[in-house]
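Archive transcription. Copying these from loose printouts into the bound notebook so they stop getting lost. Printout 1 of 2:
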Amino acid sequence: MERSEPDLESVYRAIGSVPTYRWGYYKNPAYMRELRKGASTKFLSDYKAHPERYVAGELPRLSFADGEFDVTLVSYFLFAYQDRLDYEFHRESILEIMRVTRGEARVYPTVTFEAQPSEYIPMLQSDPALQAFEFTEIKTDFEFLVNSNFFLLVTRD
């Protein structure tokens, strides 16, 4: 819990003044902090009780077997950090995610932290190295970051 408290406090202080967030679900920064603190507490408790459930990994190379998962979820990593992670990293990460996934992958959100559509999605869709996959943007009813009400569904073609 030592590490998560300063992280939560940092987010709490900064996020209320950012104009690219919608507060419908979280209501306000204080309520969001409360929810995140609860989630962090549950996670850390489970992690301490069952460390075998958690495996560290680092894209674009994962230590899992081919087709080990039915569904793979990616949240606030790809696309959101497109200013720090280049196109090649995104392409290699999608290839690796689909290597370890039998069924489908879902990548959320499809926008950057500046609430702009990722320029990498059309590039992924037309990349010959990814022609075995279909990319579909699916609308959701959750939108915290402005324009983040879509996820990218990746399936085998």
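Printout 2 of 2:
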Amino acid sequence: MIRHAVSSDAAAVASLLRALNDEPGLSPQRITPERVTRDLIEDPRALVLVAERDGTVVGVATAHHAYDSGQSRWGLFLNDLHVAPEARRQGIGRALVCAMAAAAKQGGGDHLWWNADEGDELALAFHRTLGAEQAMVTDFLLDGDAFDRMAGEHGA
């Protein structure tokens, strides 16, 4: 069953997001139930869906609204999509993406946008089975000292 996350899901969502983000250069230890509750579940800017099987949360998807100025259209940016290893290959990931697409459509949007780690062949193959097209873009991230420096230049 796919549903909106509630505060009582925070520990399970945090655990899934830590597993998703457990790779070099990331900080999964920062993903706590308290932060998940505050920054995702209770924040109206975020959409958090969970997949539940037999009363246990086994998958999560997070998204936020995004505007594609090149196509003059609204949609959702799918930040996270993760299914627990023991629950994979049962249609749960697909169901989460379908629910996000439905949420985008219900909100007047007409697309989902997301990225995948380069070299993650399993994820890339999964995304292609959904009918998603690979966009020819390169992602950039401005954070830390560089972010603070740029923000500090505004109005300086």
